[in-house]
Every structure is written in structure tokens, then in C-alpha cells.
Amino acid sequence: MWVERRSSRVSDLSKLELSHGDIRSLLKWIKQNLLKERPELFMQGESVRPGILVLINDADWELMGELDYKLQDQDNVLFISTLHGG
Amino acid sequence: MAGGAEAARLSAEISRREQELRGLRERLAAVLAGGAAGDVAATEEGASAFPGELPPLPAQASLSTADILRYSRQLVLPELGVRGQLRLSRSSVLVVGCGGLGCPLAQYLAAAGVGRLGLVDHDVVETSNLHRQVLHGEARRGLPKAVSAAAALRLLNSTVQYVPYCCALSPRTALELVRQYDVVADCSDNVPTRYLVNDACVLAGKPLVSGSALRLEGQLVVYNYQGGPCYRCLFPKPPPPETVTNCADGGVLGVVPGIMGCIQALEVLKIASGMGSSFSQFMLMFDAREGRFRNIKLRPKKADCAVCGDNPSVTCLQDYEAFCGSSATDKCRTLHLLSSEDRVSVEEYKQLLDEQVPHVLLDVRPQVEVDICRLVHAVHIPLSKLEEKDEECLEYLEKRICEEKQRTNGQTYFPVYVVCKLGNDSQKAVRILQELPVKEFGSVSAKDIKGGLMAWASKIDPTFPQY
Question: Given this model, what pLDDT does residue A86 score?
Fold first, then answer.
């Protein structure tokens, strides 16, 4: 689903006007602004759907507090879909 | 009438030859599976029953002169040495899946001199496998992949024991099988099998080297090794089936699983020889387009993991197809979105064409697939454009419908037939067309063609390419 939009660079974090500055509000912003069709391919409830791993600066978001992690300037957030083919 | 008799004679001849071919394939499979002495073969006849307990590998105390010559280039590595080589020769590795990952993996493990390789695959070699499943060859199409792989590997290193298992890993047999091996390599192609292999490895206490690849990307993690996480720690819930893409739908460049399978082989060799692995609690991600590898630090083993946690709820193997809501193969799914009155068969569509019934044929496949093959009279709008109600595309469709409609005497419901590769996306497209507001050109009657262009190729026009 991210075939077209492989990466988005945000020049100024405050421009996104995230309510809490955490991953939870980033996901909400993505849902409202970037996902035009079929948000269920990416989201489930307020989090990502099963099978998507969230990486913050090349580390599993589970190590960083998941939805509650407060975004910092220069952070690199990556959503990867797990692959099953072989 | 003469034509009818000739057709009957030819079909009889074809079925006779097909039967002969099947017989030859079975004989070849039996010969290949019977291969070198010492191999414990599970041929197709014995496929339902996995062979019982394998005899332990001989505990080799020293390397023979022949071993020293064969493995000399890796023996002189201080990291491996004689000790490591002897460990390899006493190790057994279970390879789950003899496809794009399993072929290169098994090839390097055989070449490096592991003691025993178990090769699991329920599938047979097909032409569309050959671009990435490099142990198989044109001559072995139609043979079980496990047997084909064993035959190729035996030519490479006859001192390794090969055990082909020509059936799918199942919850009934997996644990017993995994227990007989030291390291397991997950080279499978579907979600249920990945959970099954993981759980069997946790319950049997075996390290799992897991690889996957799709399109131009690959991933690798070592699970259940030296206190690290298992697959369920990372993915407690399976992904929704509709979000999973297989190699047939998404495509895969052959060398990408090749690269991932080689790195998997490397990690298996490091674990089996005692060097340890670099990817416990780490994921290696490979992006072939950018030529970039990323190393991701993963979460540790989870105390609340359903299978490897402190109070596991999974204590024996389950029904993984039910758990994942999908089948344990990478074959394409068949959707049933539309009722039968909204669908036509390829035979019915052929008749419409022959009778020159005015209609529009709408092909909703992605451009890259249209470039491979197409029906010349089709209008092409990819499903993604319909889904996002792309105005330009809808106007174009309207225009084409109006043009065609002018050739009729103003039918109320103008027929639009929708086609894709296999007849899944075409159903989604019909749903979208049915929900569109009625435009000035009036209503359309949208139906899809069951089985899509692949059914067209197999039933109507044998010269139409299959992909």
C-alpha cells in the first residue's frame, strides 16, 4: 500500500499539529491526511493492523513505548509490512 | 462429422499420452528418491505417512582425507576449523519449503557439509517456478519439489543425507518432525505455515532461521534462539488475509529470495557450527531497489507470549489455517463477492463475441500485467483507479460506453463485462460500477468474467499467454 508513497519527509514536526506529539496522534494524522482509500489495510482501531511493524529510528517501537512514544525532531518512523513469500 | 471423429481421435490420443507421461514422471520420481544408499526417502506413495524416527547421525570423531580435501577452503578459517566442520557433519537441518528461499539455502548447506537435510514441500515443479527455484530444472517439471531438490543436491554432495518429504507440514506431523532436527529453516510461502513452524520450534526447543521475500524486498529473523523472541512475540496476531500478498500476485525478482536464502544458509551454518547467530532479536531487511540492508533491533522475548511466554496458552499444535483465516499454500484466493447472475463464464463471453453483441469489455488489471498480454478490444482501467473514483478514468469509460451504445438502438441496460487475471478483482470492479450514480448515458449492466483471462487462456484460446 505504500508502493507509491515510499517515504514522506516532514520538515517541521509542529506543522502536523499533532495533539499530543506521540505516535498515536501521528497515526491519526496519517489516517486523516494520507490514507484516501481502504484505511483498514493500514490501521485497526487506533493502532496499526497486525502484520505491520513500526520502527522508530531503526528500532522496534515496542522498545520505545509504542503508541505513547513522544516524537522528537529528526526521528525516522518507518512502517514495514511483514513479508510471507518464499 | 468427419471433423468430430478426428477431434475424438485426437483427444483420445492426448489422454493416452498424458497417462504415459504421468507414469514416466512417477517412475522418475521413484528413481530419484531412491538415490544414494543411506537416504531415507519419503516418496509420493508414502507421503501421507512421514517416515518414522530417523537413525542418529554417525558421530564422526575426525575428518577423512576426502572430507579435508572437499572442505579445505572453509577448514582453514579459524572461525570454523575442524571443530566447526565436525559439528556441521553431526548436524541435521529441516528445510520447510523447497522454493525460492529453500533452493539456494539447501544448496549451500549441502555444499558446506551438514550431516542431514530434511526437505519438505507438498508442491510440484512448475515452469513459473524456474526463474527463482534454481535447484529444479526444465526436465523435472511435474515432479515433487522435495524429490527434485534432493536429486540436484545429491549431484553436488553425495556424502550428505537427504530426506525428501513430499507433503505439507501439518499440525499432526510437525512436532515429531521438528524434534528430529537440530535447526529449522522456514522457507515457506504462507502465514499459517509460518505460525505452525514457529510453534513447533518453540515446543521442540529448536532455533528457527526464518526468511521471506516478495517483489524487491526480503526479511530475515532468527527466532527462539538463546533466549530471543519467537515469531509470535513479534506477531501475536496474524495479519488479515486480504492484506497478504503472494508471489503470484505481487511478483518477485528471482535473485531476491536467492539472496535471502543465502543469508539464511549462512545463519544456519553459524548456529550449527557453534559460531552463534547475528539475528536473534534482530531483523535484517533487504531493499533490492535501493541496494540497502537495514538491521532492526527487535523487542526481547515477551513474558506474555502465547507460546514461549511464562504462562503459554499454546501447549500443543493447533489448526493454523483457522487461526489465520487462510489456507497453508500460496495459491491465489478465490473471492465470491457476486451472485451468479452478475457473472458470466468464458464460454458465455466467447459466444457474445461470436454473435457480435454490442458491449464494452473492461480490463481492470494493473498496467504492468496489461503489458504482458491483453484482449485487443478491451478498455483498460486499473482497479485502483476505479477504487479511488478517478474522474479522468470514469469519463473515459463513459465516453467508450457512449460510443458503443450509439451502435445499438438505445438499450436501457448497456452491458459492460469486466475482466482481470483470475476473476477476483473483476468482482470488486463490478461492485464499484454497480454503485456509481447513473450518468447521462443511462444505466449499465456490469458483469464479470469468471476465472478471468487465465480461464480464457485455458478454455478458449490456448495461444493466449498464462502468467
Answer: 87
**Predicted structure pTM score:** 0.86
Distance CA(B445)–CA(B448), nearest Å, equals 10
> Shortest Cα distance from A58 to chain B (angstroms)?
5
| Chain A residues lying within 8 Å of B242, measured CB to CB | 41
Grid cell in block for residue B301: 522475548
What is d(CA A26, CA A47) in angstroms, rounded to the nearest whole number? 10
Nearest to B100 by CA among B209, B261, B332: B261
Compute the distance between CA of residue B182 and CA of residue B422 in angstroms, rounded to an integer: 41
Helix axes B102-112, B145-156, angle to 10 degrees: 30
Residue with cell 447521462: B440
* Spatial separation of the C-alpha atoms in residues B249 and B332, rounded to whole Å: 8
pLDDT score, position B44: 38
Asked if B194 has any chain A CB less than 8 Å from its own CB, the reply is yes
Instruction: Name, in order, each residue with C-beta under 8 angstroms of B137's C-beta and a sequence gap of 6 or more.
Output: B130, B148, B152
Residue B324 annotated in active site: no
CB contact under 8 A, B239 and A85: no
| Residue with cell string 507470549 | B305
d(CA A39, CA B240): 13
| Contact status of B229 with chain A (Cβ, < 8 Å) | no
Tell me whether residues A49 and B296 touch, CB distance under 8 A. Answer: no
pLDDT in tens, B430-450: 999 988 887 655 678 999 999
Cα separation, B193 vs A35, whole angstroms: 31
Q: What residues form DSSP beta bridges with B215? A: B252
So what's the pLDDT on residue B28?
78
Residues B240 and B324: their CA atoms lie apart, in Å, by 8
Burial (Cβ within 10 Å: 0-12, 13-18, ≥19) of residue B102: buried
Q: What is the pLDDT of residue A40?
A: 86
Q: What integer pLDDT is reported at residue B38 of this predicted model?
A: 43
Task: Say which of A52, A80, A85 has its CB closest to residue B330.
Answer: A85
ipTM of the complex: 0.88
Q: Does A76 touch chain B (CB under 8 A)?
A: no
Neighbours of A70 (CB within 10 A): 12
B262 as an active site residue: the answer is no
Identify which of B456, B244, B461, B253 has the alpha carbon closest to the alpha carbon of residue B331: B244
